[in-house]
Amino acid sequence: MTCTIIVGGFFGDEGKGKVVAHIAFQDRPTIISRGGVGPNAGHTVIVGKKEYGVRMVPSGFVYPDARLMIGTGVLVDPRVLAKEVEELHVRGRVFVDKRCSIIDEEHISRDKSSEHLAKTIGSTGSGCGPANADRVLRVARQAKDLPELSEYLIDVPMELNSAIDRGENILLEGTQGFGISLYYGTYPFVTSKDTSASQIAADNGVGPTRIDDVVVVFKAYPTRVGEGPFSTEMDRIVSDKMGIQEFGTVTHRQRRIGQWDGGMARYSAMVNGCTQGAITGIDRVDNACFGVTEYGKLTKKAREFLEMAEEDIGCPITLISTGPDVSQIIDIRDEQ
Ligand code: IMP
Ligand code: MG
Hints:
two-stranded antiparallel ribbon; 30% helix
């Protein structure tokens, strides 16, 4: 019976959504709750022929038996939420903490029209920065102030802590990545809140002593969207030649691609209190690994990469993603 946090180790878009979905099907949590900033994040989940990009609903929604929650610390855009609840057919399963701060239209226009946020920082234009600023200034609206959200309202910390007391499995999913944390990232080219595991616990009102596992997800070839330093960034010509091209889930901007950054991985694992590492995109290290589901079937090249990454992270790599589908993963958590 565990309470597990899943966070991104690099600059976001590490494939947390897919890892959350896999763990959910394996561990059968009763609640999957979302921490992180808000709808600036887009989690992509691919199941069979269907691809979903979620910005408000937890990416674990593909596992049908869990209640889905949005933690107190998260910003809620009621328009995005309503659209996703409709499209994903999750009405009745989704709950929002009554104290979540609201993103109003005005926050979105402030985000998009600000030269500093939109141009210099390269924000997603989803209103998160201005909404968090208003939250700190104590002029923001809360979920409980909006009649259209009344059907979702709940006390998320109460639900989560009671479930932990009953010995149930719980998943807390983070958004964004360590490199764009307001505290630990490449300030000022960061998002408007910390993104580390402690923040995800705080967002959900679950104290540090109640967390059993922290899974930090790293991409074999990290990516970054928006502006800011990226020390291992590759020339576009090189990444194109390698066949690596990615586009953002929310903004559709082309992502910058980099090499593995061992120093960043180590620091990120340290601050996150990583207990288990997950690596996504191993099929990019060696194409022959695409879709492989057994550790023994990985190539020598891939295994050497994993050994190096494990050394950097300083804890076992127990989840290895070999392709975009939820089923394309190697899970050796039991063998640790
Ligand atoms: P904001 O969070 O929209 O203010 O954007 C600030 C910076 O964080 C920009 O560089 C964004 O591209 C980046 N960012 C915000 N959320 C995400 C995410 O979920 N994945 C990747 N980058 C993100
Ligand atoms: Mg994303």
